[in-house]
Design goal:
325 residues; 2,3-Dihydroxybiphenyl 1,2-Dioxygenase, domain 1; 2 domains; VOC_core; Glyas_Fos-R_dOase_dom; 33% strand
Length: 325
């Protein structure tokens, strides 16, 4: 581990975070019904609305109206990643700034027609993903997850693949004020993953070097270690394909168990993601060929070509094409 000068923030980046937090992700999949069954019967989310082709799934411990949106589609894609903004004025200011910078807006800010309503807009990021930002979304009645309940509290973070991560990281820094918390590197392949934060949590977004643009994984936070292990065990008993884990990463100091959903997306159970003292934190450059960087506990299966290939996912078929909903 080193804290040498490893990253120079973009001087044009906003002084403050443009996003308050991660809201939800949208997935388009060929087998909608099996996907919904997996997330409700195995993963621990609850269905809170559907029209038959789009289903909204919530985490019991989160005030967000939903954590995952599943849309029936012939093509598999990441429909969108949604973030929150402080208020309607922040939404308007961001849209104006992105427009001046030449970012491709899908639409102007307005009232959202999705559950919870709110005020927001969508745009394409530098790789062609659809990103949504919103404020004033109605909160959902939620509850404290009890001891022993092995269901997600909330959506923790999202990791995305791109063949040009340096450009993608610079895009998110410049336009939204994301800050780098840590970087994973390989002695021969160079820097491989950047962990980005938009609040004091170690990362809400991470950007990985991959062969094509795709979802790497989405991660869900559980109540604690016991609940995380119970959830991991439940999925193993159900026959869900495990990719990697259980273990504990060094970057973020969080636990991990990765599984494949029915349409081939990697999903993670985690807990105890690090909350940073931002006044004193300095990014680390971590060599993930060291076993303790990938897994401090030494309990997970080795990070190998099998694990890496599942994390590459299929090439995203929805780049620079806005989802219909």
């Amino acid at each position: 581990m080193t804290t040498d000068t490893i990253h120079d923030p973009d001087p044009d980046a906003p002084a403050q975070y443009a996003f308050t937090h991660l809201r939800h992700i949208g997935l388009a999949v060929p087998d909608h019904d099996k996907q919904v069954e997996f997330y409700t019967q195995n993963w621990g989310l609850s269905e809170v609305g559907t029209d038959g082709d789009v289903t909204y799934l919530a985490a019991a411990g989160s005030p967000e109206r939903y954590a995952v949106r599943v849309r029936r589609s012939a093509d598999k894609r990441l429909d969108l990643i949604a973030f929150g903004a402080a208020d309607n004025q922040a939404v308007d200011d961001l849209a104006a700034r992105l427009g001046r910078s030449g970012v491709d807006l899908i639409g102007e800010p307005g009232t959202l027609q999705t559950p919870g309503g709110g005020y927001g807009f969508r745009f394409f990021d530098v790789d062609g993903r659809t990103i949504e930002v919103s404020a004033d979304v109605a909160v959902r009645e939620h509850r404290k997850i009890e001891a022993g309940e092995s269901i997600p509290v909330k959506l923790s973070h999202v990791v995305i693949n791109t063949p040009d991560p340096e450009t993608t990281v610079a895009f998110y820094e410049r336009h939204f004020g994301f800050r780098v918390s840590d970087i994973l590197m390989h002695p021969r392949m160079g820097r491989m993953m950047w962990f980005l934060r938009t609040n004091a949590m170690h990362h809400s977004l991470a950007i990985a070097r991959g062969p094509h643009v795709a979802l790497h994984h989405a991660s869900f936070e559980l109540r604690g270690i016991d609940e995380y292990l119970r959830g991991t065990g439940r999925l193993l008993r159900s026959g869900t394909e495990k990719i990697w884990g259980p273990g504990r990463h060094m970057a973020g100091n969080n636990t991990f168990s990765y599984f494949l959903d029915p349409n081939g997306n990697t999903m993670e159970y985690t807990t105890e993601l690090e909350v940073l003292d931002e006044d004193t934190w300095h990014p680390h450059l971590l060599d993930f060929t060291r076993p303790e960087v990938a897994d401090q506990w030494g309990t997970a299966n080795a990070m190998n070509e099998f694990v890496a290939s599942r994390s590459f996912n299929d090439p995203d078929k929805g780049l620079f094409v806005a989802p219909p909903v």
